Amino acid sequence: MAGVALETTALSLALLAIATVMPALLPCSAELQRFERPAKADGSLSLLVVGDWGRKGQFNQSQVAAQMGKIGEELDIDFVISTGDNFYDNGLKDVQDKAFEESFTNVYTAKSLQKQWYSVLGNHDYRGDVLAELSPLLQKIDSRWLCLRSFILNAEIVDFFFVDTTPFVESYWTNPENDHYDWRDVAPRETYISVLLKDLDAALKASTAPWKIVVGHHAMRSASHHGDTAELLSLLLPILKANGVDLYINGHDHCLQHISSNDSKIQYLTSGGGSMAWRGVFTPTSDKLRFFYDGQGFMSLQLTRTAADIAFYDVFGRVLHEWGVSKHLHPAAKKFPERDKKCWAGFGLLGRLNPREIQLGDARTDPRRDAVTPRAAARFYSFSRASPYLGLLALRPNPEQNPLRFGSPPRPLPCFGVSGRLPPDLLCRHFNKLHELLGKLKQENVSTLTILVMGKGGVGKSSTVNSILGERVASVSAFQSEGLRPIMCSRSRAGFTLNIIDTPGLVEGGYVNEQAIEIIKRFLLNKTIDVLLYVDRLDAYRMDSLDRQVVKAITDTFGKRIWQRSMVVLTHAQLSPPDGLNYDDFFAKRSEALMRYVRLGARIRKQEFQESSIPVVLVENSGRCKTNSGGEKILPDGTPWIPNLVEVITTVIANGSKPITVDQKLIEGPNPNDRGKFFVPLILAFQYFVVVKGIQRAIKQDIKNEPKPLWELRDKGLANRKF
Ligand SMILES: Nc1nc2c(ncn2[C@@H]2O[C@H](COP(=O)(O)OP(=O)(O)OP(=O)(O)O)[C@@H](O)[C@H]2O)c(=O)[nH]1
Ligand SMILES: *[C@@H]1O[C@H](CO)[C@@H](O)[C@H](O)[C@H]1NC(C)=O
Ligand SMILES: *[C@@H]1O[C@H](CO)[C@@H](O)[C@H](O)[C@H]1NC(C)=O
Ligand SMILES: *[C@@H]1O[C@H](CO)[C@@H](O)[C@H](O)[C@H]1NC(C)=O
Ligand SMILES: *[C@@H]1O[C@H](CO)[C@@H](O)[C@H](O)[C@H]1NC(C)=O
Ligand SMILES: *[C@@H]1O[C@H](CO)[C@@H](O)[C@H](O)[C@H]1NC(C)=O
Ligand SMILES: [Mg+2]
After folding, report:
1. Residue with the nearest Cα to atom 12 of ligand 5?
2. Whole-model pTM?
3. Where does ligand 6 bind, in terms of residues with CB under 6 Å?
4. Cα-atom radius of gyration of the chain, to the nearest Å?
5. Strand ranges (DSSP E) for 24-166?
6. Which residues form the catalytic set?
7. Residue 616 contacts residue 586 (beta carbons within 8 Å)
8. Residue 248: its H or E element
9. DSSP letters for 472-487
10. Which of 56, 235, 531, 615 lies most in the core, judged by the most C-beta atoms within 10 Å?
């Protein structure tokens, strides 16, 4: 009996337990709220991310907002994401709180920012009336506003998962000090978090979008003041890794950062520079820190089905850091294993292509010769996305082993009159202009032009290549170059091919990088260089022996003759000269100083030099470069610089000296240090018979003629010793 009674009690206790747990379990079935929005007609999406901002315009909030307006316009953004800490110091008091307008509506006034904003809450927002900040009533005041705790945004090519991270942080609960956190609808913490994580995991698993991006206020990894958020690393990160999340974007630390996960593809991106910054704290963090900036700014994200590009900007709208990643685009692409990449040539249309329009095939068997490997296809597509015009593209990851092959286009180029989805004039404008400028060369029966771009690291080589082509083909980085490999971009139109070869910087850690030079040499094998662009910065004020060494390395590699086919390109042309110098004087001084070092490094005699002087041209690659009414980037004196640069290129070519062909001989050619090696045995023989023998004879003679002190007799053997 007692046994039965005990069993019933146990059962009722169990039932009671279930009943009490039920209400807490209920939200389990409630999914995270979802919002939908389409990508652009061309399948792309662009947006800005800002965090930690609401300070009524102060602490550079207005400056950041103004630059967001400009970049937003440039990128034609679709929406804005806020990573939280929207209203300082203590969120909103109520829905009537004027801070909402003073910190949001009246600050982000630019036309391009009049888009939907998607916001999460930060810890400071939790210190006010959270329900007010989440209230739909705010949308009546400013329709852009949308702030929820956790929600999902399906944007066709990407799913964004917004996660309320403040409740994760235990110290806000256990040790709030003088702050009050509004935990209404959140407490108890454990239940809230477990339900949220379960919903998030389910939603991530169900997501089929090519990109999965998670947004929260607190950082996973941070090298700044707050550092890593331990609770997120232990509770949230495993779910993100298990579900193949691409990016985790946050604010909280008032800085800009890019950190790559060591053991997954996740990139941790901090955009928390919306207003007050300059904390002056840097602490090393785990994983790979790629970029850290302690000041104000924001981030942009551009996405297509296959490519993601991020950029960070400062309070002046300057790009501080850029990074991109590609995905395979076509299920058919999987057919071709990655190792096939050494045997392919690809071509296709440039322009805003639909990935389905890219032809795939096997280079070895496909008679159309237009085979593209998956990786190439992905890169190809990301190139074509960035390109505002059409042309023919050839990409080769292993150019040394694979001669360039062109196939015939799979279909007529819209550029030549067949209607495309975009007006041809828009697509073709830049390339047509370039082509027209290069038309002069065609008249001289030049059908291929190969431009080699070299110089020290970080001087703007890649940026110049991109500017000339009008698209982002070479990766630009504010710090050191990503790799040592040169890249060649080819563009063809109407029988004329333009090749531009971007190379890695030649200086590393204060020395000329021999390895880079070797790689460049081998890359250039069997290529003909028509023009060398030697790039440096206009705003570099000091020249040193390193400059000379770089020039010498180039001379040793290609021969002195390369300088007859060269021009000096000075980037950062939009500068204000220091100490009230006038611009022309500054330019003249800078070119003169640089030229002196070129002359020294190339061992060109002065009069030789004057006969064929090396032209110097100015370039300004900055997105902030002034433009004329035709949209062309101009120099401070109003000259459109690309046409000017191309004009000078044509004159260098037209001046008659032969282009430089890089053959095996040039590559293996005499190392200057080996020169004269042939004479070494002769010189040794000469020294032995003439010098050494002669001296020995003379010494012996002297010894014979001199009275010998005792000590010398002891050491006598010395004179008989062979030298
Ligand atoms: N304002 C301004 N910034 C420039 C200009 N050219 C390049 N930059 C910036 O300078 C930095 C380095 O530019 P890159 O084009 O990557 O230089 P690079 O010579 O290719 O560098 P490595 O490949 O690393 O040797 C980037 O942050 C560019 O945005 C320019 O003309 N004006
Ligand atoms: C505003 O930005 C400039 C440039 O980064 C910086 O020098 C200045 O300190 C900033 N002001 C504040 C209040 O952070
Ligand atoms: C990640 O790699 C860096 C070196 O690239 C190393 O210093 C760091 O400890 C690693 N972090 C983790 C979490 O493995
Ligand atoms: C370069 O050209 C030489 C002679 O034409 C040829 O033998 C060699 O295979 C070529 N090398 C490459 C990598 O194309
Ligand atoms: C270019 O080639 C054509 C035909 O091959 C010839 O008639 C013409 O004279 C050439 N022009 C120059 C400048 O060499
Ligand atoms: C080309 O040669 C002409 C004279 O023959 C000279 O005036 C001009 O400066 C040269 N241009 C270049 C770029 O070397
Ligand atoms: Mg570069």
Report:
1. 444
2. 0.48
3. 612, 615, 651-652, 655
4. 33
5. 33-36, 45-50, 79-82, 116-119, 151-154, 158-162
6. 226
7. no
8. strand 247-250
9. --S---SSS-S-S--E
10. 531
By the 8 A CB rule, do 163 and 32 touch? Answer: no
CA–centroid distance, 446 to ligand 5, in Å, is 10
pLDDT by residue (tens digit) across 621-650? 887 788 888 778 899 889 989 889 988 988
Helix (H) or strand (E) holding 14: helix 2-25
The pair of three-digit structure tokens given for residue 159, joined into one six-digit string: 């799913």
> Which residue lies with its CA nearest to atom 9 of ligand 2?
278
Under 8 Å between Cβ of 428 and 414: no
Residue 59 CA to ligand 2 center (angstroms) comes to 7
Residue 525 near ligand 4, beta carbon < 6 Å: yes
Query: Can you give the pLDDT at residue 446?
Result: 77
The reported pLDDT for the residue numbered 559 is 87
d(CA 392, CA 346): 9
Write out residues in the chain with pLDDT < 50, as ranges: 1-29, 329-428, 478-482, 671-677, 707-723
Token code pair at residue 650: 């044509």
Tokens of 285: 């963090």
| CA-403 nearest atom, ligand 4 | 14
Closest CA to 267 of 225, 211, 317, 314: 211
Residue 277 CA, ligand 2 centroid: distance in Å: 8
Relative to the alpha carbon of 266, which ligand is closest? 3
Amino acid found at 4: V
Tell me what pLDDT residue 421 has: 28
Q: Using an 8 Å Cβ cutoff, are 222 and 260 in contact?
A: no
Distance 502 CA to ligand 7 centre (A): 7
Per the CB < 8 A criterion, the answer to whether 530 and 659 are in contact is yes
Q: Is ligand 2 within 6 A of the CB of residue 278?
A: yes
Q: Is the peptide bond before 89 cis (omega within 30 degrees of 0)?
A: yes
CA distance 634 to 573: 10
Measured by CA distance, the residue closest to atom 2 of ligand 5 is 445
Q: What pLDDT is attached to residue 153? A: 97
pLDDT of residue 276: 96
Pocket flag, ligand 2, residue 291 (CB < 6 Å): no
- How far apart are alpha carbons 348 and 370 in whole angstroms? 8
Total number of residues shown for the chain: 723
Q: Where are the beta strands (DSSP E) in 251-333?
A: 256-260, 267-271, 288-293, 297-303, 307-314, 319-326
**What is the Cα–Cα distance from 198 to 29, expressed in whole angstroms?**
10
Residue 445 CA: which ligand 5 atom is closest? 1
Cα 709 to Cα 699: distance, rounded to the nearest angstrom: 16
Ligand 4 site, residue 665, Cβ cutoff 6 A: no
C-beta neighbour count of 338 within 10 angstroms: 9
Closest to 434 in 3D by CA, of 400, 390, 397: 390
**Residue 332 DSSP label:** G
β strands within 466-577, DSSP E: 487-493, 496-502, 507-508, 511-512, 528-529, 531-537, 566-571
Identify any residues that bridge with 33 across adjacent strands, giving them in sequence order: 151
Structure tokens at 376: 């190439």
Say what the pLDDT of residue 404 is: 27
In single-letter form, the type of residue at position 666 comes to: L
- SS3 string, 145-189, reads CCECCCEEEECCCEEEEECCCHHHCHHHHHCCCCCCCCCCCCCCH
Q: How far apart are CA 579 and CA 576, in angstroms?
A: 9
Distances (CA, A) of 353 to 303, 358, 388, 414, 595: 14, 8, 11, 11, 44
**Spacing, Cα 685 to ligand 5 middle (Å):** 58
